Amino acid sequence: MKNLHVAIAGATGAVGVEMIRTLEKRRFPVSRLTLLASSRSIGKRLLFHGEQIPVQELREDSFQDVDVALFSAGAGASKKFAPFAVQAGAVVVDNSSAFRMDGEVPLVIPEINGNDIRKNRGIVANPNCTTAIALMALHPLHKAFGVRRVFAASYQAVSGTGAQAIEELRTQVADTVAERPFSPKVYPHPIAFNVIPHVDVFLENGYTKEEMKMQNEGRRILHLPEFKASVTCVRVPVYRAHSVAINAEFERPVSIEEALEALRAAPGLKVVDDPANAQYPMPVNVAGRDDCEVGRVRLDCALENGLAFWVAGDQLLKGAALNAVQIAELL
Amino acid sequence: MKNLHVAIAGATGAVGVEMIRTLEKRRFPVSRLTLLASSRSIGKRLLFHGEQIPVQELREDSFQDVDVALFSAGAGASKKFAPFAVQAGAVVVDNSSAFRMDGEVPLVIPEINGNDIRKNRGIVANPNCTTAIALMALHPLHKAFGVRRVFAASYQAVSGTGAQAIEELRTQVADTVAERPFSPKVYPHPIAFNVIPHVDVFLENGYTKEEMKMQNEGRRILHLPEFKASVTCVRVPVYRAHSVAINAEFERPVSIEEALEALRAAPGLKVVDDPANAQYPMPVNVAGRDDCEVGRVRLDCALENGLAFWVAGDQLLKGAALNAVQIAELL
């Protein structure tokens, strides 16, 4: 594999920084790294393999000689600049929601539908973070039993919103400890010592956009146009790593033994399921880890062929940067 | 109504203190208040209507002349001492799990099955806090559409565990802000900036005892022996007030209009459902409030006759002290 010129659009954001770390950690064959961000970040320098790399402005002409462009600068920036990257000959891996539902753009979790990458016309989309983490556990169970629908509730960390939200939680907590008043800026309500059932914008049907992603993106990733997912997405005062409680209904009879076997065999997934010793997935344990964790696996008491389980994963890694770099590796 | 001699067993606990406040707030006709707790609390004094009342040791002979005994001292204490209170002629309202599944003991949420109180033989049980909060919203929908089963995930505050857990969260957060290391005591894992999918003890079937309460207690309270509830109970770093995400399947076709009408007419429940203005129930808003709140009501996209919704309530009040005092009022 020849060394590649990689560009990161949105390099200074929470995911962008993890993309740099992930390229390093996985020893991705980089001949040159171009860091791009909005004009506000010009002048910043970020470390890559010990080298200080200056951040440049993301522009239409930023992609000359770029082989792979990793985008994580929001859907607006992706829609505007990704076509220029493709035109310049780069392959774009886009972490935003801009192209996820575009039939021409493969939406890929390498462990699940890596083959879909072949159909790309210059852009491959990275799924929503909560969806990616949930599907890491749901897919092996789907292969074993055939999933029909899921009911899920999420516990989403503030880093999913970005660096400002991390700072908002930190400030609000410090203000609470010091008994100082504060007013929320990033979120519409306090996030310290609270939970907010509002992630992304509300749709006509009463769900948020985030909540419908598990069904919409799940159908594409699992190749299952009838898949149904009713989700409630909730922001919780956790810095890093999302968790999801899932009830899943399958076509065929399930057993705990077969379920655990399928989950244990799945790449990128670790089974942590020892309730007697208080071992189950938690944000504090998966933060900073590549693998997602699944546990609390039990026969669902309200479904005929059903399983209830609990998944946690670092949404900046498997939910974003890691998955993007894994896609780039397949390319 | 004549004035009554009221005893509170477990008066110094998080719920006990709220019981005193609730008796005051609702102007319960108290002629005398006896505060009982374990021997460790003897000598403490608690305020009731401006009067300092000394805490006495909870003993078998504590209930002479007591008309109503409110118990919130754990299931062990209830099993041991409630029979003596009954023998002394008191009616016991028990907040523990000791008698909830006892067919001879009515399990009551006054707004739902207040009439069941009549069948009591000296003891009335108060339901689990998460169950009580969930049923406050589920019952009106059940009356309208006939509930069959629910899938639920909880976001439970530390005060549900008690005063030590409140202190544990406070300490861990302060230690985190000051960058001091800490080791968990009350919970098996850190609760600050984490979520723990482990409330109460684990059962053979992989659910926790807490998780099965919604089905077991729900069947008794709703008079619905076939009711099914698959729940994941999760502790979150919130001081006060539980939240629950619910997907509910009904026998009859549902509509949002009828659902909101039923919820708005329900006593003890407030509909807060204005997503366009970021209004929905949250712990910060229901903490310290008697009413539970319901919102995020939407047609469930994965159920035929289904609704998804979100409930929040102060588990020390509706989930415990308030419900107990309401039962005492009916008695």
From the structure above, extract its key features:
homodimer; 331 residues; 9 helices; alpha/beta; Rossmann fold; six-stranded mixed β-sheet; Dihydrodipicolinate Reductase, domain 2; 2 domains
Describe the protein.
- The structure is a homodimer of 331-residue chains.
- With 331 residues, the first copy, chain A, is α/β, with parallel strands linked by helices.
- The first copy, chain A, folds into 2 domains: 133 residues, NAD(P)-binding Rossmann-like Domain (Rossmann fold, 3-Layer(aba) Sandwich); 185 residues, Dihydrodipicolinate Reductase, domain 2.
- Helix content of chain A is 31%, strand content 24%.
- Chain A has 9 helices and 13 strands.
- In chain A, the strands form 2 sheets. In chain A, strands 3-4-2-1-5-6-7 form a 7-stranded mixed β-sheet, with helices on both faces. A 6-stranded mixed β-sheet of chain A has the order 9-8-10-13-12-11.
- In chain A, helix 1 links the parallel strand 1 and strand 2.
- In chain A, helix 1 packs across helix 9, helix 4 crosses helix 6 and helix 4 crosses helix 7.
- The longest helix of chain A is centred in the middle third of the chain and has 17 residues.
- Chain A is globular and about 55 Å long.
- At the A-B interface, strand 8, helix 5, strand 9, strand 10 and strand 12 of A face strand 8, helix 5, strand 9, strand 10 and strand 12 of B.
